[in-house]
Specification:
By secondary structure, the chain is of the alpha/beta class. It is built from six helices and six strands; from the N terminus they run βαβαββαβαβαα. The radius of gyration is 14 Å and the shape is globular. The chain binds flavin mononucleotide.
Length: about 160
């Protein structure tokens, strides 16, 4: 099965998980990039505002084409109890190009179910599997059993 992982990461946590998943699942890896500054307090507040307002923002062109893959794995940090604005923008743009899709997120605490349901609403079909990890689990690399279970669900 050909898998593409597409993710956004502001501070490197979701990126760390995405890189690990790419080697674990033998997948191609694509980082979503945008032009908005997300540094510092202002960047944090703007990011939260964009997520809460469900803003669609310009994102850079992808290197890989989701249409070429059997499965697209979408990774996001949870922002304001929902998907990050760069990932929302990616989903809106490419949702019709997925043969199958699944999702993973990293988060400090709560909001994963709303994050998943927001993404499912945009794509219009349920995610094949969903992996949610806390920031601290990713930083400590305490996720081996979770990603094994995730992989099993993806292969079903
Ligand atoms: C603007 C903003 C809003 C956030 N809102 C939530 C939230 O609602 N729930 C939560 O569990 N974590 C929240 N977080 C924490 C991030 O989801 C968490 O730190 C994540 O692992 C960061 O991933 P990254 O390093 O890939 O950007 C928020 C972070 C930011 C920047």
């Amino acid at each position: 099965m050909k898998i593409l992982i597409v993710y956004y990461s502001r501070t490197g946590v979701t990126k760390k998980l995405a890189i690990h998943l790419a080697s674990f699942l033998n997948a191609d890896l694509e980082e979503i990039k945008d032009q908005n500054s997300r540094l510092g307090l202002l960047g944090y507040l703007n990011s939260g505002k964009e997520a809460a307002l469900k803003k669609i923002i310009p994102i850079e062109k992808l290197m890989f084409n989701p249409k070429d893959y059997d499965l697209v794995l979408v990774g996001t940090p949870v922002w304001a109890f929902t998907i990050s604005s760069p990932v929302r923008s990616f989903l809106e743009k490419y949702k019709n190009d997925f043969k199958a899709w699944a999702m993973f997120c990293t988060q400090g605490g709560e909001g994963e179910q709303k994050t998943l349901s927001s993404a499912e609403k945009i794509v219009g079909s349920p995610a094949k599997a969903f992996l949610r990890l806390l920031t601290k689990q990713v930083l400590r690399k305490e996720f081996l059993s979770e990603i094994e279970v995730f992989k099993e669900k993806l292969e079903k």
